């Protein structure tokens, strides 16, 4: 399987990413697992949501550059450093996709969803195993 095929499979099948932001105090990584969405027609972008009051919102506002690694699937991961995050205004597509991918996402009430921030993380390169994939 090519690096691109492996990348697409991992981005589709991995349930979570370990998301690394920089603390607002500066230059200290803060890592947490988050659920995410990836769309095949946007190969170098992934989407994730968080409560609007979460610490990572302040971190992303202060420094919108993140790194992440997918949870392993068959001992393989995708790793990205230097992705740029922007808040997404149209969240309905994200919510529908998350509901379909993660049955537990339905636990978020309409009020929870209204208070959720959704981010798009865009990147130019990804490490798939030991192979670098450029977009």
From TrEMBL:
Leader sequence residues: none
Database matches in Gene3D superfamilies: Electron Transport, Fmn-binding Protein, Chain A
Residue stretches making up the Pyridoxamine 5'-phosphate oxidase-like domain: 12-85
Name by which UniProt lists this protein: Pyridoxamine 5'-phosphate oxidase-like domain-containing protein
Native organism: Pediococcus stilesii
Lineage top rank: taxon: Bacteria
InterPro entries recorded: Putative_PNPOx_2 (IPR055196), Split_barrel_FMN-bd (IPR012349)
């Amino acid at each position: 399987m090519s690096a691109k095929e492996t990348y697409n499979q991992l981005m589709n099948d991995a349930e979570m990413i370990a998301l690394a932001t920089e603390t607002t105090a500066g230059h200290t990584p803060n890592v947490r697992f988050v659920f995410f969405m990836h769309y095949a027609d946007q190969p170098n972008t992934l989407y994730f949501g968080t409560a609007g009051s979460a610490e990572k919102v302040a971190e992303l506002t202060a420094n919108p550059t993140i790194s992440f690694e997918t949870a392993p699937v068959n001992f393989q991961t995708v790793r990205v450093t230097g992705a740029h995050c922007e808040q997404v205004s149209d969240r309905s597509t994200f919510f529908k996709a998350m509901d379909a991918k993660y049955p537990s996402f339905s636990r978020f009430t309409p009020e929870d969803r209204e208070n959720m921030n959704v981010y798009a993380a865009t990147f130019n390169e990804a490490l798939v195993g030991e192979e670098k994939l450029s977009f």
